[in-house]
């Protein structure tokens, strides 16, 4: 491949990193839809203008192919098949990014070296935006800096990766102030995020570097010392500040930790029942039926378990097997091994891989092996063009639906993708009459039998029609699907009491009983 074409692919990968990290970290499906079209167009360009495709036939290729294909295939048996298809669109850019990366492996390090700059700019811009009330919701959560990720914990992980890259770039023989500035900004960003897990990992990483890297020992010890001093000062004098109070509360209140253990425990029951996965959003829809505590989460806060819940045991073991393979590789550098280890550890306590940016970064640090040249036939080029056209249609439909869902325009969301269950649930909550309520509930239950609010709506519609038998049937089903919803019980008892009183007024003792 010519140098100009390699540079073009390099710039597209930069664009992918910038777009995904700038727009919610690439968490939203609409971002994935845009990314999919752009990256697939690049791949079609490669196919049309080149007769050779480079692939690395290793565990990474198998794992990433299974991941992407898995989200589409689970549509066949998912809890909600149409929402599962949205999951396929969401994770499609992961495979496409990896495929382009395979064409320019020599540019990986250049991409990695850009990350600290991205992180520093994100931190500085979001910190300034945080000072203005109108922008606070975009860059912070409950007073915690979240960058453009809109989630402090994943932003903190991103900044930790940036800090490690810039720290390892420090060279006493050359000008080092830029790397030191990036490291300092990253440390400030990590603190302002209030992420307790990442703060612990940061201390571990700096200690690790100071022990094993003699050249960087003064800088890592200085960074670690300043970090500890800041935390200590806040511990003794800054308890009233929100972030300091949050950090100090770690020692006094472990409710978040125990809550996540509860998620894990309940998730294991679902894994035993659904070893091939339940599709994207499947865990969210079915969790209320098996949970042993009061909570409602979209993700289980453990990416290994989340992948199993979504697409099955095999893809999860392949993904983490690929990471482990790189971690134990003889060719991997100390820096890359440490960063991979940090990402892996954090992913076991949060939902990092739901953000495209983190997944893209993960791909940059995997070791590629067994390169092969694949000749591209004319039929393959035609198939690539057809795939691009099909993806434009699918991504436009699903992307616009997700965009309007995020914006709160649920009617338009359903207009673009009529199978968007989440949007229909929101419309159901706002239904103004029994007829509209029943119509929406039927539409939801047609594709997903596990939505308690839809059965509850069917019960209310039956009650409005005076059909007490159907009211009891659907209300009991709603209670069975959401046993921790207190309102369902009170509504059930209130309606039954009302019915009994009406029967007694007409001396219908049999019906009252």
Explain the overall architecture.
There is one protein chain. With about 525 residues, the protein is an all-alpha fold. Helix content is about 75%, strand content about 5%. It has 3 domains: about 5-375, no CATH class; about 375-430; about 435-513. It is built from 25 helices and 4 strands. The strands form 2 sheets. Strands 1-4 form a two-stranded antiparallel ribbon. It has a two-stranded antiparallel sheet with strand order 2-3. Helix 9 (about 195-210) runs antiparallel to helix 10 (about 215-235) and helix 14 (about 305-310) packs antiparallel against helix 15 (about 315-325). The longest helix has 30 residues, at about 380-405. The chain starts with a helix and ends with a helix. The mean pLDDT is about 90.
């Amino acid at each position: 491949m010519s140098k100009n074409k390699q540079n073009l692919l390099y710039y597209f990968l930069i664009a992918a990193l910038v777009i995904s990290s700038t727009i919610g970290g690439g968490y939203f499906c609409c971002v994935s839809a845009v990314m999919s079209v752009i990256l697939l167009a690049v791949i079609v360009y490669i196919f049309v203008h080149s007769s050779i495709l480079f692939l690395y036939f290793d565990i990474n290729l198998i794992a990433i192919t299974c991941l992407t294909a898995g989200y589409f295939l689970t549509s066949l048996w998912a809890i909600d098949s149409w929402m599962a298809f949205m999951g396929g669109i969401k994770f499609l850019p992961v495979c496409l990014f990896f495929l382009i990366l395979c064409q320019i492996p020599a540019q990986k390090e250049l991409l990695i070296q850009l990350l600290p700059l991205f992180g520093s700019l994100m931190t500085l811009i979001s910190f300034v935006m945080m000072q203005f009330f109108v922008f606070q919701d975009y860059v912070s959560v409950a007073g915690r800096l979240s960058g453009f990720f809109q989630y402090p914990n994943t932003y903190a992980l991103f900044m930790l990766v940036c800090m490690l890259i810039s720290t390892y770039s420090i060279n006493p023989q050359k000008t080092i102030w830029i790397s030191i500035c990036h490291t300092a900004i990253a440390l400030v960003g990590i603190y302002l995020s209030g992420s307790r897990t990442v703060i612990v990992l940061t201390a571990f990483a700096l200690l690790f570097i100071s022990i094993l890297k003699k050249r960087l020992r003064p800088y890592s010890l200085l960074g670690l010392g300043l970090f500890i001093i800041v935390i200590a000062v806040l511990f003794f004098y800054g308890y009233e500040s929100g972030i300091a109070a949050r950090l100090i509360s770690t020692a006094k209140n472990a409710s978040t930790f125990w809550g996540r253990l509860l998620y894990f425990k309940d998730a294991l029951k679902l894994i035993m029942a659904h070893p091939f996965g339940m599709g994207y959003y499947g865990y969210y829809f079915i969790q209320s039926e098996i949970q042993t505590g009061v909570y409602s989460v979209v993700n289980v806060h453990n990416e290994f378990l989340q992948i199993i819940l979504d697409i099955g045991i095999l893809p999860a073991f392949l993904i983490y097997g690929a990471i482990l393979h790189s971690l134990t590789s003889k060719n991997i550098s100390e820096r890359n091994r440490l960063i991979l280890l940090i990402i892996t550890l954090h992913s076991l306590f949060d939902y990092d891989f739901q953000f495209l940016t983190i997944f893209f970064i993960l791909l940059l640090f995997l070791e590629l092996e067994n390169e092969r040249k694949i000749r591209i036939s004319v039929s393959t080029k035609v198939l690539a063009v057809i795939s691009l056209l099909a993806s434009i249609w699918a991504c436009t439909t699903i992307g616009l639906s997700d965009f309007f869902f995020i914006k709160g325009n649920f009617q338009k969301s359903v207009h673009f993708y009529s199978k968007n269950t989440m949007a229909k649930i929101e419309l159901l909550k706002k239904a103004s009459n029994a007829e509209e309520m029943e119509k929406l509930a039927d539409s939801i239950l047609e594709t997903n039998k596990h939505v308690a609010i839809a059965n509850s709506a069917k019960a209310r519609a039956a009650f409005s029609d005076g059909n007490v038998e159907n009211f009891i049937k659907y209300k009991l089903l709603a209670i069975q699907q959401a046993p921790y919803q207190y309102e369902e019980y009170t509504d059930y008892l209130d309606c039954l009491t009302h019915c009994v009183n009406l029967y007694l007024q007409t001396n219908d003792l049999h019906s009252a009983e």
